[in-house]
Design brief:
Six copies of one chain form a homohexamer. Chain A has 136 residues and is an alpha+beta fold. Helix content of chain A is 29%, strand content 32%. Chain A has one domain: 6-pyruvoyl tetrahydropterin synthase/QueD (Tetrahydropterin Synthase, Chain A), CATH 3.30.479.10. Chain A has helices spanning 23-30, 63-78, 83-86, 97-108, and strands at residues 2-14, 39-51, 81-82, 117-126, 129-133.
């Protein structure tokens, strides 16, 4: 079993704002992240799959195909977007990095072939903050 | 003469959109960067000052004081903001990285003491795109 | 279950020196790290906690609160210090990166709320050397 | 139990080419990586060992000795080499990053003393592609 | 005047070998870099142009167009290639990073529009070795 | 004219403390950097030389020879040392990064052959603070 990771990049606007709360409560809990006019990030997305290397190629999975899948399934829907407004699979959810990582897993997992398993979605929001989700 | 650089960080939303143009022209010129609902970045800001080291301290400039000045003069106005909507010194300007670097120079330069000269504003928009402005 | 990591920074002096040994034995085992007059490092500290995202915030844990906790519990005691001389929780211990990571876990773990579990302390001593401790 | 990681570097030429296939099939599967005249990479090799810190030293393992072992057992055989042509332990194998990581494990594992266990070989082929192998 | 930099990536095989010398002399001068069977690198290419921001766009130059130009003029000819064998503009030259940077300047400069000037080609051969060429 | 840069690493202890001042003044000016028991850093040292590539080698300067010179002339005197106590060429000077960069220039410049000129000493004290010295 070998683990293969591909790193992709997107940038997006978002805010952390719970519509069930008033503005004061949102500012208290989310601070500057609740700014009504949005802020944004350069996200770095690490996708790790695992499997046995194919004897003919030496590959767990063709990394170019993995890159294409990540771009088609998630990056094109997220890059240069507003996470709260523009992304169908984030509707009705808090746009935290935690929830975004879980949603990326759910978008990507069904698109992978049976020969590999999705192992981890790791998502950097800033160079000093990241989350990891292992599907459970 | 020694050059001293301090790196600071902020993240912000913006869009590239010329209000004198219609939407089609904006999309043609700015592509995804013209998304009406904004996108955003983690900006890395490098501020370089130059001067002669003080014999008593060995410092061109106290780097903690430089950090405080950068934060007070520019980062607090930019961090977790919408560059187009929230930042007084970007009003009426295209929010390109080029124009943002020039504007940061103009905000910061008058706040520095006479003992040092501002040498360069270097601003990363993404890890693969940056601009530099030397004041002329 | 989502894993959330916050990266903090401190720099410190230390030496690797076993007082039960003579100088020759210390030099033999620790080489340049045994220099009596100390050396030092920029340490990068990765703290990972795990838990379920709160439905109201989307957070496993408020990352600003995590940052504050790490700074109060450990970084303020370590930053710009001598690990052998100035740090109460390293007294009587060899100041290896391994022992420092274990000690940071012990300082930080009781300060975290019951809603999250401490998962990993990862500590870079140099860009090419790091240790990880998972609490067992 | 503490995990200690040492990062080493080597650069090498290789190609991905299955001699059982004709050129068209190789190009179809491996694309530019099948270029007959080779291409190459700067590889970053992360070797992680685990064990209990020695009470006398605070070390899981002397990191300088670990570095020496990695260099002697694997880096000297790989650095500035052609992976397909020059490396005895890659003969008859596809030179994928996956297979290279497994082969490095097999070269390094027997050379480690009983006091530590090899935990992970992590190998970056480019800054955006890496594999991990845990020995099973 | 603002300086705009775009970073691109390619990887390639090469060797340092002067055909006017015998093998012993090549090994003496170039060491492991003279390995007959090639070695290789992940190159990071920084292209800096300078000019005045356009009032309508805020751009010195459209960075996506700059990226496309770099890829078309140089990266496609270098990526996954053998610098000595496959690259027309390196024929008859020593494939040092110095000569490669000068050659990239010569390929790219005529392709840029009159509105910007090429300022610098910066080329990393490894994370610890890079060259810069300013056209003179 | 091509500029060639080699990056080297050392770590060291130091403090910022002016012996002509009392402790209160030192703490006021230098803050935590005045800690009597020292602190330390991982320094990254960038040495840039410039010259014309040699037609026979394509080199401005043999980068392995440059690395050896840097190590012999400066890194061996600085690595795992106390800058204030152990380094002959820092005696009687404030151990600021500015003064350290100037001193490194003075140590290294006479050791270089006439075929290249020393262009810049760039020295990172932390990942967010660096200085540059160009010899004038």
């Amino acid at each position: 079993m070998v683990y293969l990771t591909r790193v992709e990049h997107f940038n997006a606007a978002h805010k952390l704002y719970n519509p069930a709360w008033d503005e004061a409560r949102n500012e208290e809990v989310f601070g500057k992240c609740a700014n009504q006019n949005w802020h944004g990030h350069n996200y770095e997305l690490y996708v790790t799959v695992k499997g046995d290397p194919d004897p003919d190629t030496g590959f767990v999975f063709d990394v170019k195909r993995l890159s294409t899948l990540i771009r088609e399934q998630v990056v094109e829907k997220l890059d240069h977007r507003n996470l709260n407004m523009d992304v169908d699979f984030m509707q009705g959810k808090m746009c935290s990095t935690e929830n975004l990582a879980i949603a990326i897993w759910k978008e990507l997992q069904p698109a992978l072939p049976a020969s590999v398993q999705l192992h981890c979605i790791k998502l950097y929001e800033t160079p000093r903050i990241y989350v990891e989700y292992f599907g459970e």
